[in-house]
Amino acid sequence: METKIFKNTEIEAAAKDLKAGQLVAFPTETVYGLGADALNETAVKQVYQAKGRPSDNPLIVHVADIQTVERLAQPLSDAAKKLMTAFWPGSLTMIFNLRPGVLSKAVTGGLNTAAFRFPANDTTLALIKAVGHPLVGPSANTSGKPSPTTAQHVAHDLDGKIAGIVDDGPTKVGVESTVLDMSTDQPAILRPGAVTAAEIEAVIGQTVATEIHQVGAKETPKAPGMKYKHYAPSAQVLIVNDGDWAEALAWAAKQPVQLGLMITDDRLHQLTVPRNVEAYSLGQDVTTASHHLFDGLRHFDDETDIKDILAEGFSNDGIGLAYMNRLKKSAGNTFFEA
Ligand code: TXA
Ligand code: MG
């Protein structure tokens, strides 16, 4: 199959393929999604095949209006409505209990719940409206690889396997949406993203559980890579904490190979970079670092022979929690030890 590249103005043509049950990758403000008609079970099943994704891992349902959520989900709580008003369209995915029989097992992985997202991207909102059905959209990467933040990343992983890609340039945020479970009494964050627990708590006036901390507590340091098969480049990533940079680069200088460096500009300019180290800029702060993270990991894998990357660590504040969550997974939780 030849994968078409659609311009962000070619919405009707992309919608036609989706209506015919084909797969078309679409842009969002976070990362690119692999789209299929959420109400077409055969199409949804092909999403798992194209990505090589385990079929029990449920998909996010992307909508362009709140009415679609109301039709599929059990009556929404006041907290849910407040969060929609505050954050939609935007990077907050919410899990709700479903009405019986409305979505296939292929979407839900057999759960009674589904994740809903109203992305902040006008091209994709127009695409969903043109299809007339919600779209499933896991990140449009091969399962286990860093999520795609450009149409070129999608093509690298899925060229020849899907009907098309709607190219809307690089995504803004760069890390996937916050996933918030609203199906139980206490809302719980299952995946950190640009919308933080504190922002959610401020809107609903209720404490939010942050499950990822519990996952962290159970970590087995012996084999962190076993647990973290996500976002993994072929290269080994070493996270470098504040204060360890001079030693990290002194260590790098002694290695007999080329190394990669993912680092913010100000920090780079304070350091002397050894000749065998290639720097990739993460911009000026943790927000731009989140935007560039997956592109940087892919750059070293796809465009160089580099097998070891030193990457800048940040504190867990704000979007830093999402950045560090993805970076730790890509590094198998490995830090440079001074
Ligand atoms: O930013 C994003 O969320 C991107 C863009 C394309 O919208 N999508 C994305 O989808 O990251 P995906 O499939 O790569 O990640 C969705 C996450 C998975 O970890 C999945 O297990 C979880 O959400 N999930 C989906 N439905 C769920 C459900 N009903 N209950 C619990 N977790 C769910
Ligand atoms: Mg994903």
UniProtKB/TrEMBL annotation:
Gene Ontology biological-process annotations: regulation of translational fidelity; tRNA processing
One Gene Ontology cellular component: cytoplasm
Entry EC number(s): 2.7.7.87
Occurrences of domain YrdC-like (ranges): 8-195
Subcellular location: Cytoplasm
Residue sites binding L-threonine per the record: T30, H62, R117, S177
Enzyme class: transferase
Pfam families in UniProt: Sua5_C, Sua5_yciO_yrdC
Keywords: ATP-binding, Cytoplasm, Nucleotide-binding, Nucleotidyltransferase, Transferase, tRNA processing
MF (Gene Ontology): ATP binding; double-stranded RNA binding; L-threonylcarbamoyladenylate synthase; tRNA binding
Principal localisation: cytoplasm
Catalytically driven reaction(s): L-threonine + hydrogencarbonate + ATP = L-threonylcarbamoyladenylate + diphosphate + H2O
Presence of keyword Signal: no
Binding of ATP, residues: R53, N57, T113, S139, S147, R191, Y231
Protein purpose: Required for the formation of a threonylcarbamoyl group on adenosine at position 37 (t(6)A37) in tRNAs that read codons beginning with adenine.
Entry's family note: Belongs to the SUA5 family.
PANTHER family linked to this entry: SUA5, THREONYLCARBAMOYL-AMP SYNTHASE
Protein name: Threonylcarbamoyl-AMP synthase
Naturally occurring in which organism (per UniProt): Furfurilactobacillus siliginis
